[in-house]
Amino acid sequence: MGKIMGPVVAVHADWVGEALGIELTQASSLPLARRLYRALRAWIQSGRLASGCRLPSSRRLARELGVGRNSVLDAIDQLVAEGFLETRPGAGTFVADLPFGRPGTPSERPDDAPPTAVLSPRGERLLRFCAPSDGHHGAFPPGVPALDRFPRELWQRLLKRHQRRAPEAWLDYRAQGGVTALREVLCDYLRLSRSVRCRPEQVLVVQGAQQGFELIARMLGDPGDAVWMEEPGYGGAQACFDASGLELVPVPVDGEGMDPGGVPSGQADPRLIYVTPSHQYPSGVTMSLPRRLALLEAAETHGAWIVEDDYDSEFRYGQRPIAALQGLTESARVIYVGTLSKVLYPGLRLGYLVLPEALVEPFRRANARLHREGQYTVQAALGEFIAAGHFSRHVRQMRDCYRQRQALLRRALAPAVARGLVLSEGQAGMHLVAWLDDAGLEATLVERGAANGITLSPLSGYYLEAPGRPGLVLGYAGSRDDEILRAGRWLAQAWLSLVEG
Ligand SMILES: Cc1ncc(COP(=O)(O)O)c(C=O)c1O
């Protein structure tokens, strides 16, 4: 009998016939009844056939397997006699209540241990950008919006309505760049609120910014091509470009944003330049106009594409919205990347690219081939969510909510700030940076925070080149008020006791 591979997964009774059928395709000199007996016993012992699971009738199994019923009955009778199966008169044959497959129960054969993972060098490199996550969200995970404030009932209603109305074409493979109605409303929104220059045809709906970065890397870069990255910068984009084999060139960020003049000399021309000009991630700096113009010129000179990641610019407090870099000049070599992950919720997995005309057709075709186009009914529901004004209302409400949550965090940290802890300006976005002047202090606070259930993201980890500047990235948007106060007060005390002894 062949080995049962993979993790223990309970086989649903409906699939027993199919699974046995696969078993029987393997060459064996054993009699049929014996092979059926062995396969079923092994599945019960490994937990794949869970206690209480009802077997299909012997008649049905024989029919599905194309074998004589007696062979099936022989195998089942043997397993009943041994106590692996039990028959319940009038109800059928069931897997007996045995401890197999429960946590702590050894599997039948120790040699069934799963193979150890030998990753490709690229896979190993990729993991450097992927911190293990336990999915715990107390205070202060960066980049998480107020999930508790999302209008879920309204959203469910819209989803249901669009599911009911979905035309047959949406059940098919398509290559249209996403649902037209959504691309139209996104285009209106971007033109008005972000000064993006676009037509709906230029909008390509993707399943989150991350997928957009990946598509850009694959379509425009070859392994070894240089991509300028903000230093410090966003780990998601770093991971994506690195995994595509691009050479990440860290370009320093100062008070005006990425400084193209700071590119180390002797570097190859970049193919891509990744920036977050509206709200640099994670420092929070807004790129100045002279820098924007310098960057556009650098892209022109090098024949590079700028990837403008405009991930959270809806959230500005007290400042006028900053126009997108993409809209600055008519022929800008800019691919604008937007996401719904911050403004709505990350599990939605929706984002969009605004592509220069020359890239529209190739990107649309490649995306439909590589990733397919996502879920049209969800896209249509989002189109209505935006068109009906729910989106702008939610943005306004979240802006108020985040302003208040930031104020709470500042209040909780006030004792430390009074003694010298420096916080970023927080004119926008969903997190603050607490600047530290000592890597040891950063490490100790991160460790103690984790022990207290508080996520403190070390700023130095956002740098490609060590040693990064120490600090803490404190996401406040996704944490409840009481969590912000508790964790903020804890952090202020921890900082004071470490700094002042
Ligand atoms: C700088 C930046 N860009 C983009 C994203 C959004 O990524 P996605 O749309 O793949 O969820 C994030 C999310 O954390 C981010 O921090």
What report would you give on this structure?
With 501 residues, this protein is of the alpha/beta class. The protein has helices spanning 16-24, 32-46, 58-65, 69-82, 121-127, 152-165, 180-194, 209-220, 235-243, 289-302, 357-370, 376-387, 390-418, 439-451, 481-500; strands spanning 85-88, 92-95, 203-206, 226-231, 247-254, 257-258, 270-275, 305-309, 334-339, 351-354, 422-423, 431-435, 457-458, 471-475. An eight-stranded mixed sheet has the order 3-10-9-8-7-4-5-6, sandwiched between helices. It has a four-stranded antiparallel sheet with strand order 11-12-14-13, covered by helices on one side. Helix 8 packs parallel to helix 9 and helix 14 crosses helix 15. 40% of the residues are buried. The structure holds pyridoxal-5'-phosphate.
What is shown here, in short?
The protein is α/β, with parallel strands linked by helices. The protein is 41% helix and 13% strand.
Topology, element by element:
Blueprint: H1 16-24, H2 32-46, H3 58-65, H4 69-82, E1 85-88, E2 92-95, H5 121-127, H6 152-165, H7 180-194, E3 203-206, H8 209-220, E4 226-231, H9 235-243, E5 247-254, E6 257-258, E7 270-275, H10 289-302, E8 305-309, E9 334-339, E10 351-354, H11 357-370, H12 376-387, H13 390-418, E11 422-423, E12 431-435, H14 439-451, E13 457-458, E14 471-475, H15 481-500
Parallel strand pairs: 4-5, 4-7, 7-8, 8-9
Antiparallel strand pairs: 1-2, 3-10, 5-6, 9-10, 11-12, 12-14, 13-14
The structure holds pyridoxal-5'-phosphate.
